[in-house]
User: Fold these one by one.
Assistant:
Number 1:
Amino acid sequence: MNAHLQPTGSAYFITSETQEIERHTLSVLVDNEPGILARVVGLFSARGYNIESLTVSETEHGRRLSRITVVVTATPKVLVQIKLQLERLVPVHKVHDLTAEGASLERELALIKVAGSGDHRAETLRLADAFRAQIVDATVESFVFEVTGKPAKIDSFITLMQPLGLVEVVRTGLAAISRGPQSM
Amino acid sequence: MAEKMTGAEMVIQALTDQGVEHIFGYPGGAALPIYDAMFQQDFVQHILVRHEQGATHMAEGYARSTGKPGVVLVTSGPGATNAVTGLTDALMDSIPLVCITAQVPTTLIGSDAFQECDTVGITRSCTKYNYLVKRVEDLPRIMHEAFLIATTGRPGPVVIDIPKDVQFAVGEYYKPDSVTLRHQSYRPQVDGDAAAIEAAVDLMLKAERPIFYTGGGVINAGTEASEHLRELAELTGFPVTSTLMGLGAFPASHPQWMGMLGMHGTYEANLAMHDCDVMINIGARFDDRITGRVDAFSPNSRKIHVDIDPSSINKVVRVDVPIVGDCGRVLAEMVRVWRSKTNQPRTEAIAPWWAEIATWRAVNSLGYKNSDTVIKPQYAIERLYEATRKQGKDVFITTEVGQHQMWAAQHFHFDKPNRWMTSGGLGTMGYGLPAAVGVQVAHPDALVIDIAGEASVQMTMQELSTAVQYRLPIKIFILNNERMGMVRQWQDLLHGSRYAHSYSESLPDFVKLAEAYGGKGIRCENPAELDAAIAEMLDYDGPVLFDVIVEKDENCLPMIPSGKPHNEIILPDTANIGSIIDEKGRALV
């Protein structure tokens, strides 16, 4: 029955994890009330769960509901616990594991400032075009690009900008939604 | 009909509407409007404590012994921070508390004002839920919602932080209806899934080595749950063991009772857990004091787990049949389904199992070597138990934390739920004395005894003054070994008997201390005089501090050392416990 658990020699660290760590995107529908973010984040720190990214904003103003999209890395067993622990919080309405539940869309927006001159400037523009990055601010020695897409696309764009005079980056974190007609 | 009143009056009105007769508290600057409102009414009675931690433990004892929520009222800043230990204790042991904390006026919040602290921030992780009330309009809803959240689902503590200007503000009081009352997101599941209950009963019907492993959830589910448990146990004929928190849910005088399980549980209960083929967990949470080494925990059993908190299921031990629901309702449903399938207990099929259990029982794992010259702590509790049985009163026991707590669990026996109040999850020394005060407030005619250690009891000793003030005749039965006995025992086990700070070089004279507080003090060190001294304690109509001088170096056995499976339990005849735990086991707690 417990064959999947390895001996740990500890009365406390009972779940020696032999399972692979996975990366999942959770969508959490919560009441938009004071302290809700602290409650969610506090739960993660108190129970030792890892947050990779967290996005929160009010999505239904009339019902005062916010949607938190949180990317976590954990073993499958801990992922189940994270979902159940989140559901246990009084202001949490629903928790959906988008990764586990099938096809979903994930998008992120980044603003990226690049400074440079001469050939670098031309190369920067060529790459920006290839990534469909919009120029949202320009000076004679700098650009600010707006780029949207999957996190991996933004990662690659940032990597390419590095030698071309990357100054700073700001990212929104992930927004995710399931495909198809259903709501969460 | 809405009525205009101040926030402070709303607090008292809501408490009245909730039927709260007793609250435990301590005034202070920010709480004065509420105290003033309370002064002008008679329904809600206030018990003035000596320290806010005491108030929280009193409320816990009150709640645990009545099934009603315990209510606490404290001031801002230190009032709130002093309450944190009790709130955490209540969260760990699922005790319904509503704790009202006063706060500095909203205009001063965040300015580091006098007696300001971030109460909602500090208590966020030690409450089931908490509120900062910023508008008086929200106060009636929040007051009633707090009681709902504290008492339903898995019970727990709820904090309501009320700034002083909100207490003064005037608004309309209303009793919210059930729709506006609760958070739309808060919907505890109480009825177990029918298919899962069916599957559980099917497993039980085929069991050859079954065991009921019950916990505090059965007690939280109300007295009917304990009756259903007894009914189901008798219908099936299965043995029953319980966690520390669940003692009393199943009568200790019943032939199917196995004693407590876990680190200091009986040999028969632990071996039966290890060797069973079907384990029926009702309202327990596979705590590490129960499982020992998880990978060796009950390796060959199919496990059924009933819990109202979905996150308790599969958290520690993977189970075969999870059932989310209220223990009482699920037990009633199990009884019904079992009856629909058979009207016979599995007496014959499990006869070999009971025979095996009989051989484990014969080991007499709670045995100890008695003495004519020194009082053994186990003997003291046995004599106390015998004496209380003759009293003809309802008996409630609270404890502190340590060896005396485990001996009380082993040697005092409970036939009814809600009679045993102890700090299980958090292990809070200093819990028992104030808890006894809370129990006695709820049950003025009952016999309430705090079985204590001389170290623990000093952590909240000042509440004896509360007991004297309100004429609460609690009995504090101190097993005095001049040691922090459990710490000393672990130092023997793990640290070469180097007793770093585990003894008290200067203890108070407990008899004089009791007298100084206005109570009665009794000391006893001779086994021959113990019965008479206990009788004197029980006969006295008032609080008694009873100082029993016991054997100093007695070990609390049996014991499953950390990192060991259930079948490697240390039995009482072990001479030297210092050589049992290996290097690896030393890191454990």
Number 2:
Amino acid sequence: MNSIQKVRIEYSKKGPVRYIGHLDLMHTLFRALKRANLPVSYTQGFNPRIKCSFSPALPLGFASESEYMELYLDKKIDISSSVDNLQKELPEGLTVHNMEKLSLFGKSSNVKIKAVAYRINLEQFSGKSAVSTRASKEDIERKIRNFLDKEEIFLTNKKGRTVNVRPLILSMEMDSDWNLRLLLEARGGFNFNPRIIVKTLLGVEKKELAFVEFTREKFLFW
Amino acid sequence: MLDNILPFVSKPGRYLGNEWNVVHKDWESTQVKVALCYPDIYELGMSNLGLQILYYIINGREDSLAERVYAPGLDAEEILKERGIPLFSLESKRPLRDFDIIGFTLQHELSYTNILNVLNLANIPLRSRNRDGKFPLIIAGGPSASNPEPLADFIDAFVLGDGEEVIEEIIETYKQRQENGLLKSLAKIPGVYVPSLYEVNYKEDGTIEQIQGKGDGTPEIIEKRVVDLETSHYPLAPLVPLIDISQNRLNLEIQRGCPHSCRFCQSQAVYGPCRVRSKKRLLEIAKDSFKSTGYDEVALTSLSSTDYPGIERLIDEFLTCFGKNHTSVSLPSLRPDRFSLALAIRIQQIRKTGLTFAPEAGSERLRRLIGKRISDEEFTSTISQAYNAGWRLVKLYFMIGLPGEKEDDIEAIIRLVKGPKNRHRNLNFNVTIAAFVPKPHTPFQWLPMENLAELRRKKDYLSRRLPAQVKGHTVESSFLEAVFSRGDRRLGMVLEKAWAMGCKFDQWKEHFRFDIWQEAFSRSSIDPDFYVYRERDSEEILPWSHLLYGRSRETLVKDRV
């Protein structure tokens, strides 16, 4: 059957479910779609798969307010009742915010991502919690200035790829709630893990960031 | 508490307890709290159907709740110890100690150190006699309960056979317990064995003099439980994990027991007699379960699914009912015959998974001796047909050290694989070689296991000569399995020593430490060879002589070769 509709489902990922990795989350969503009885389209061929695309993989442990999946359908659906049906079938921590119709022939949003905004809560360094080294906001702001003053910052990601991340940082600043606001350019679908950037910025061990909350706030599109 | 653990472990998804269909019941208002434990990692434990059935039954009762716990990974164990966090259940995250009953499943003998480790991580004394009424009742069931003696010092009560009905009887008995009377009342339930109510005396040569019940009312013989499969409970909303596990699909048990009676095989004793679920019931269960899980694959499981009466019609009906919803059907184990292959072709397992056959022995003669009746010709032609149908990978299981095995039987394994391999160049074989371990309640229960040096030699020889990738547990781990599968309660001491010296996850090659085990045997002054290499007289009282698993001693004696 030919797909006759394409929809974009936006959802957030919070709480313990943020420890479910990308591939496992895909399967979890596929099963939820099946339980919700949405008329999803399948690919042709020997091993039919659900026709869809997902927002770029989120690092394990990150929360997100801006995940999305784009889904082809065999039948037209009523948007508002489908949101309810799907929500009922999702594990705790996954919340659908929006569902909208897309042009059937448009490209996947993934190729249109310009930048990604992250919010990183650094309150544990404020001295209110005993977990880690104390730093004043001024300390952190000075570190940010020094960091941004550099022309090149070469960092190596988990897969061993070394990249100059400085040009990827579009903005980096502290807000009034101890959140580090980081806007990272996504070049050709490549997303550098902000955990490595924050670790270098603060000059701390990976362990000290274990309790720091990373949230992917939103995608900026071309 | 979870926040203290999750960022530091490699697989945090194991500890979340947020699976789909998970049951969270109110702790305070529920009378009997049961923790179900599979003493190995999450990915294996979640795949176990037996615990899913019990989870469903217990949570279906108004007065009870069931939660789960698995053996934590080594990284998580370190953190628990470092921070002094007692092992907790996945659902309510409560310490295991707070439960009324902890039930372990005994899937194989090499999991025993993990049971001790779980108890220890939960701050529960290992030995029954060191636990008073303030600690949970510790029970265990499953295949290895068919000889539970090596665990007699640690487990309060064993459940023999099918658990569906007896678990409810145990809960009822627990509710009416009186001080110091619980174990005695449990022993009155058919199929429940309370080891501390029995005394075992030994002769000078180390064999058993007698096994005797203490006091009135302890049954002389405990017979395993058998349920009616058609009417027994089956989970209609099984747990769906959010991370990948080893059997990530809807598992539908179509048949329990096996119509064949291969002499080496303990499964018939454990799961028999052979019973089927009707097609009608299976379709009902599947319909509900697909709806509640969202799975896109169903495995029709049993010890020998192709022997299900009318299996073709069953498969057709499944394909008709669920196939258009992009759902596939799979069969877990096939006999290497034409009929089974035809079924595999029908459900299009091609390329999805390899084909798995278990000829067990290389020659027709030896296969006949162990009760596995498949001719060389049928095997070879089945493989050819599989090749023609598109399969390029075939997995084969063989045993070495079988009673009556001759040198030529080893050559026969090579011939059996080489034949099809020469004909079909790009057909690949994965061959698993397992050492034969004599098991209780089988006609081979009196026989010695072949010695380690010989087994090692045969396995090395096969690894060199077979045109295939050869896998399998080490023969040393089979030796340990042989000790414990026919061992008595004196082994409790060895088990505790080995665990204290660091043994756990013995089933995992990378964790198995035969040297420590040998040290533990020697420090306990117990000779493992006594259990492994000794031929028993058919009149000898065996550690499991008081446990009845279907066939009587006389029947087993008659079925010996």
